[in-house]
Structures are given as C-alpha cells and as structure tokens.
C-alpha cells in the first residue's frame, strides 16, 4: 500500500489545498514513463525505462471533518447485522466463501485475498492519522 502518491493537478485545481489537509481525490490512475533522452542525459548512457504511477486529478474536495473514511453512516439494524456476523464461530470460512463466490475452490487464494483486505495491524501516527498495517502475501 503506497504511503504517498504523485498527483497531477491542472488549471483551476492548483493552489486550492494547503499541505497536510485531508482531501478526497477523483482522478485517472496512470503511468508516467521518462523518455529515452532524459534518461541518457541523467545516466550518461542508455538505461532501463523508469515508470512511475500517478493520478491525474479531475476533482478535489476538502474533507471538512477530517474523517478520511467519508460520510458513511450505518443504521442500527446494519450495525446489529455486522455484530451478528462477527460473532459467528465460522466467520473466517464465511468470509472466504463470500470472496468471488462464482469461483469454485481456490480456498487458499481466497484466504490470501481476505488477509490482504482485512489483515494488518492498525497504526496511529503522532499527527493522529491512522494507517492499516501492511500484510504481505505471496501467491505461487
């Protein structure tokens, strides 16, 4: 999970947000590749193409409440449903079954995907930001 992303902002979106502000970004995920001439000047010889991902920003919205999760509110019935599901003794197997139910078998792959989605230790940074810990899974 990347800790930072390169954003490409054009025209009216420039200088609307100050550094450190939490934002919601709508954009196009793309890859930037340096051209051959720039690489040769920098390295003095021909080198391997360097690719970097970035987001071309189409829309920017400042989060007023500072909540990175957005305006998601669950009703009492939905919360009770979540709690009942979490209290089941076979919640792990039920989670695996709900990942790609149209694909039969491949339980080990489904369990790895579930670990990527729900795993990791939560970390709290000194500035109050919360990060989900990294879970690394190797599929062969």
Write a compact overview of the structure shown.
The chain is α+β, with helices and mostly antiparallel strands and 140 residues long. The chain has helices spanning 36-43, 76-87, 91-98, 107-118, and strands at 6-8, 23-33, 51-62, 122-124, 130-132.
Structure description:
With 140 residues, this protein is an alpha+beta fold. The chain contains four helices and five strands; from the N terminus they run E-E-H-E-H-H-H-E-E. Strands 1-3-2 form a three-stranded mixed β-sheet, with no helix packed on it. A hairpin with a 5-residue loop joins strand 4 and strand 5 (130-132). Helix 3 packs across helix 4. The protein is extended.
Strand and helix layout:
Elements: E1 6-8, E2 23-33, H1 36-43, E3 51-62, H2 76-87, H3 91-98, H4 107-118, E4 122-124, E5 130-132
Parallel strand pairs: 1-3
Antiparallel strand pairs: 2-3, 4-5
The radius of gyration is: 21 Å
Termini Cα gap:
20 Å
Number of strands: 5
Q: Characterize the overall form.
A: extended
- Counting helices, strands and paired strands, the structural category is alpha+beta
Low-confidence stretches: none
Topology order in helix (H) and strand (E) letters:
EEHEHHHEE
Largest sheet: 3 strands, mixed
Query: What value does the average pLDDT take?
Result: 76
Keywords:
4 helices; alpha+beta; 3-stranded mixed sheet; single chain
């Amino acid at each position: 999970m990347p800790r930072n992303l390169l954003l490409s902002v054009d025209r009216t979106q420039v200088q609307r947000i100050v550094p450190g502000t939490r934002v919601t970004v709508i954009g196009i995920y793309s890859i930037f590749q340096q051209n051959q001439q720039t690489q040769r000047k920098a390295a003095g010889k021909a080198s391997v193409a360097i690719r970097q991902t970035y987001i071309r920003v189409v829309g920017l919205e400042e989060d007023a409440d500072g909540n990175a999760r957005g305006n998601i509110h669950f009703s009492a019935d939905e919360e009770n449903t979540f709690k009942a599901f979490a209290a089941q003794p076979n919640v792990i197997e039920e989670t695996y079954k709900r990942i790609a139910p149209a694909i039969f078998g491949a339980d080990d792959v489904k369990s790895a995907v579930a670990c990527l989605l729900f795993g990791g230790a939560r970390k709290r940074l000194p500035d109050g930001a919360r990060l989900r810990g990294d879970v690394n899974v190797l599929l062969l």
